[in-house]
Amino acid sequence: MSVSTRRLNVGLIGAGRSGRFHFQRLCLRGDLVPVAVVSGGPEELSVAEPSGCRVVADDHELLADESIDLVLATSRDPGRIETVRRAIDLGRPVAVSSPLTEQELALVSESEPPARLLVLSECLADADFQVALAEVRRCGLGQPRTLAHSTWGFTGTGSMTTSGEELPASLLERLEQLLLLCDVEPLSVSARLLVGAKEPEGIGIVARFSGGMTANLEYHPSSPVPLATGWVIAGTTGGYRDCELFALTDDEEVYGTPLESGSIDLDRVYDDIVLQWDDASHHGEVLNRADRLVRFISAVRESLSRGTDVEVAS
Questions:
Q1: What is the phi/psi pair of residue 261, to 5°?
Q2: How far is CA 136 from CA 143, 178, 183, 237, in A?
Q3: What stretch of H or E contains 41?
Q4: CA angle 299, 302, 306 (to 5 degrees)
Q5: What phi and psi, each to the nearest 5 degrees, are found at residue 309?
Q6: Please, are residues 175 and 299 in contact by the beta-carbon 8 Å criterion?
Q7: Range with the lowest mean pLDDT among 74-83, 145-154, 231-240, 273-282?
Q8: Are 85 and 94 in contact (CB under 8 A)?
Q9: Phi and psi for 95 in degrees, rounded to 5?
Q10: Up-side HSE of residue 151: CA atoms within 13 Å toward CB?
């Protein structure tokens, strides 16, 4: 955890398990301090009261509190847009869980002065992804050419609609990670449903990027075979899988070098929020990636609906 010397008073909006999780994590920090939470029922009252955090009736009351520096909306509920709209109208900085929506991005671009909308990217806590990203950024693989990620396992029924309108949160996180690993514009995507033993069906995605890079993702929540590959990357000079770097010798033999695996660091998510607050350049990069992710997700949904390859809007 990297804690800055700045203290930001945070007001949380977002009932339920996710909201309580973020509240409890922030209570362990000294730079992002929860001072108010919107009451979503007895559960929120039970976690807020012992910490001395104020419990307010609704987001109107929270947004009116001038002692709050940053409003954090953890829900991915479609109704979140109204909270973001009110915060921007009042000139209040607000952070929301990724992915953003087209409407939220439009509010940022249309506001005057520019709205301060921060992005909470929970995908950053993935240890395997962070090791893979570090190798890509230090050019340990050369230029990435092919990327793959598969997640199979039985999660029960009813977790996903076959229309693609509600893509699973874990798949959305993989898509965001993919854009960070590639760091180039996606050109087209082909998404298909994967038949499962029971409902829900899975989703397979093939994405093509500028420079000839391709990626293949599978999410299969009704598979009776558990499988989690993590990121598998083939580059021009090496490869990556499961915290191991692979290289080709002059004798055309492949050898692997274990990398330090590290551990899941949940605070990376909040460290990035602080960095967005302090560094305007990083904040701009995050918003650009958020825009790219919105267009990418839209193309995945359209491809699922049409059953064809779809170009990603530029």
A1: -75, -25
A2: 8, 12, 10, 11
A3: none
A4: 135
A5: -70, 135
A6: no
A7: 74-83
A8: no
A9: -115, 140
A10: 15
